[in-house]
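To whoever is on call:

I kicked off a structure prediction for a single chain this morning and the downstream step that reads the tokens threw a length-mismatch warning. I double-checked the sequence; it's 235 residues and nothing unusual in it as far as I can see. Pasting both halves so you can look.
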Amino acid sequence: MIVINCIGAGHWGPNLIKVFTTIPDVRVNLACDTSQERLDLVRQRIPGIAGFTQDANRAIEDDEADAVIIATPVHTHSDLALKALNAGKHVFVEKPLCKTSAEGQALVEAAERNARLLCVGHVFLFNNAIRGIRNLIRRGELGRILYLHATRTNLGPVRSDVNALWDLASHDLSIFNYWLQAQPLTVSAHGASLLNADIEDVVVAGFRYPDGINAYVHASWLNPRKVREIIVTSQ
């Protein structure tokens, strides 16, 4: 039996909790959120959770738990994940992992030091369509990849702690890396802060990969039309 605690029951946390409660030999011991209203809603909608708490430290220090899920605002990820790893828990963090590369490196080092797994919720890497395209690319059936282009737009939800590149394009970047089995050599990005100062709501980014492959992303949470599209151009 694997015992899991989930910190965060806001936008995405309940989806994770619901999935884990349906997996055999997995028990969600504690659901945690600072909002009692959110906890009450989870209690009503998702059966099978042993307990509820507004104290993140209780969820982290719970002796019964093998792992901790962190589905909280991005600016809290680093601190909560570091505490959980140092408490001897395996950790699953919703994307993006954290706000800076230095924070990310510290978490990787903590996971290695404590011999624990650190996972990031790049959910599209488990999507059958994404995996199917990966297989086509690796078998050479699409020919030579020239460039990739992704559009990820919607009307909200508007974030206040990270911009549209961090929040939305992190999905597409993980897909690009997965398909190409590489990381970008160079990155460029331009954005506009329309609602909140220093938080870009609309972003266009370019990534240059080995073998001269370019990839581009248009990400926005101020678009009235929801678009989830990736174009692969090959020769």
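Update from on-call: the warning came from a stale cache, not from the record. Cleared it. Sanity check on the structure: The chain has two domains: 2-121, 124-234.
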